[in-house]
Amino acid sequence: MDLIPIDDPADPRLADYRDLTDVALRRALEPAGGLYIAESAKVIGRALAAGHRPRSLMVQEKWTADAAALLAAHPGVPVYVVSATVAESTAGYAVHRGALAAMHRPELPSLEETVADARRVVILEDIVDHTNVGAMFRGAAGLGADAVLIGPRCADPLYRRSVRVSMGTVFQVPWTRLPDWPAAGELLHAAGLHLAALALTPDAVPLDAFASDPPRRLALMLGAEGDGLSRRALEAADTIVTIPMSGGVDSLNVAAASAVALWALRPRGRARRG
Prior knowledge:
single chain, 2 domains, elongated
């Protein structure tokens, strides 16, 4: 392991952690494909286990043993050892978990590859809050979804906050980006998925009724806070489903709603449609 002490937050070797925003990291032309930042040993470990390649690590001295363990299969990756003060000055926030890694972005798989054997898929349309995206990936992983598909304007699952909130499950659940509607609907139907839109409409089917005999292969569609799913998304849906509410509340936070629906629609026993 190549340990490199650095005591100056302006050191050019820390540029990946300092000079680029998450959007700029994603769009960087060098290295090809761009970068993302993973935070904490647990999240970095999950990224490495998923086959993602590290470009460098920035760690505080007390975390060097963890860095050595993480990089056992990646000799030659530089590890920049910094103080807590330098880490905060460089990253722009307190790095409480002691380690950051600049990771190469992997090439996204095709939609067909991502959903080939999936029985439960989650679709995120125009969800721009990174915390919600991370929470929905965590729910998808914990509640048995086989894949996540994100629309063209959805927030980046590899944004630092999304990764952190997901506890690294963005590396565990297969995901890729969808084209816009109606092309997305055509591809999903061609893949054999029943599209169930979670929305508040007069003709929506209550979740418990829909869950009593769900399709065998199902994609659950969720839209942004407030606006919900777009008209074109609803037009592509095979069924519109709603979570019955009480107490004068009309809906749940989108991450909470996705967890409730995934639990209710988890595969079990025999299912009605192929």
